[in-house]
């Protein structure tokens, strides 16, 4: 008897298709080296953030002592972002885009706060996406939500039974009990 050798079939069975497909690290195509894709993405991220930090520092009219240089800031931010989102390239890219928009927005002052040390990089990376907008935008959003809620509610209902004004029904409260109930109960004699 000889040793039999089985070669993989050209048409895989249904159960093995999952095994042949790439891992679910969305964003890396078949045939791409994951390390190359990650390295080029991380380098692009550092360069973009570095450009943003340098622009913020160049716009600064007042000479302030920065705790971190733009180079250190960019590297520190990217390392923390990579540590948090290293399992999914798409999640990494998505969060990076949102962070970059927040860093470039002069109303948020995130880039400035990070470089002077007022805001820690780990705190910035761990912020919720809804916290990446400016305070004025948050106020506008809450005002819009309140207005929409008021419009949806429509008519305001009375909070007290005495506020009901109807010609057919007249109800008033007297010491926490309605007048009709007081007439029924002998304990609550109105005379």
From TrEMBL:
InterPro entries: TFIIS_cen_dom, TFIIS_cen_dom_sf. It comes from the Eukaryota. Residues 1-10 have a biased composition (Polar residues). Residues 1-20 are annotated as: Disordered. GO terms for biological process: DNA-templated transcription. Residues 39-151 form the TFIIS central domain. This is TFIIS central domain-containing protein. It comes from Pichia californica.
